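Input.
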Amino acid sequence: MGSIERWAKRRQSSGLSCWLTSGNIDAEFLQPGPDLLEEKGPGCHHIAFKTKNLTERNRYLEDKGHRLLQRGEFDGGHGRYAYYDTVPDLGVMIELLEFDSDKEVQPKQA
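Output.
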């Protein structure tokens, strides 16, 4: 088992968060606000995966019946994210992250 290379804790207006890095895994833990905790209870909210082609992965997930819930650009415009409703099958939502720095070249559309 690898060592934890980085660990940090910070206080946000919504509560505490902390994250750790070990190898190619980043984990972030957030303290939920009282409304979310009361509505959903404790547990995992979502799992994020980096992708080099958000368009292709979006098509794959939607073809499997996982509805796109939210999509947007990162602050600063260096990438984008998308959340999918995978709760019925996986018990958590999936988030995809695409960074401009390692994005696959997209074919030109005619």
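The two ends are 49 Å apart (CA to CA).
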